[in-house]
Design goal:
Blueprint: E1 41-46, H1 61-69, H2 83-86, E2 89-94, H3 102-118, E3 122-127, H4 133-140, E4 146-151, H5 172-178, E5 182-192, H6 200-208, E6 211-214, H7 215-221, H8 223-234, E7 239-244, H9 266-274, E8 281-287, H10 298-318
Parallel strand pairs: 1-2, 1-3, 3-8, 4-5, 4-7, 5-6, 7-8
Bound molecules: manganese (II) ion (MN) (2 copies).
Amino acid sequence: MTESFFTPISGMELPRFAGVPSFMRLPVMDFDHPRISEVQIGLVGVPWDSGTTNRPGPRHGPRQLRDASTMIRAQNGATGVRPFDLARCADLGDVGPNPADIIDSMERITAFYDTLTSKNIVPLTAGGDHLTSLPVLRALAKDSPLGMVHFDSHTDLYHSYFGGTMYTHGTPFRRAVEEGLLDPKRVVQIGIRGSTYDDEDTDFAKAVGIRLIRIEEFFARGVADVMAEAREIVGTTPTYISYDIDFVDPTFAPGTGTPEVGGPNSFQALEVVRALDGLNIAGADLVEVSPPFDSSGNTAFLGVSIMFELLCIMADSTTP
Ligand code: MN
Ligand code: MN
């Protein structure tokens, strides 16, 4: 049982619409906080979308996700897990990017996560567009490559855009494999669909041994079977979980830059995370929520609900 300092404010004490919104109503702490060394899981916002090639907006994601996250209660109704009792969690604030300089932003993000990992904190990140994952992985996989379970409509494995631009939200995992941050044989991508430019990304996946599970296969086999294979691929070694909200059908998650129809519903969106309980989780992110395209607020609420499921399996894996 964690002590009250690290316990989110209950809606039974202060109504959930009241108070300054932090992630899941956790204490907000910076790296100079006297109790930072006690934190086990850090929730971090990366308000940045400079890697976006089409409809922008994820720079507004963390603020909207924090607001929506005040809806989250302490206990997972499906699994019974109480993450805030299992691990000391805190909102570590936002990484301040430089919206006019993509390389400078990536350096700032990596520096933030370098500090975070030096304090043995496991990060749960709210993006930001999907390029956010690359500078995070540069810090987390500094010593050895990670496995990855990646939920997305897109592979994000393209070589470059616009005749040679190497850093966009369509290229982060190509760079991560090239830089030795991911072990491609322990990477699985789930939910891939939609029209494509060509086979350049999937050819790369095949060449390096990334397992790609298209949406047709996902629906034909079902959640339990697909996720059992995903668990086998990443094994017991340290694994990153990257969750692009456009994995979910745009009926449930319209507020994103690159929606693709024919996807999982909001129940399946949560189920796939629960199926990863017990993995050796080095960190996780939820990216591509774009509030300007989220007029109902449903995308942000689904986003934080996914973050809560991620937090539950992370807290479970943090506990000996
Ligand atoms: Mn993506
Ligand atoms: Mn995507």
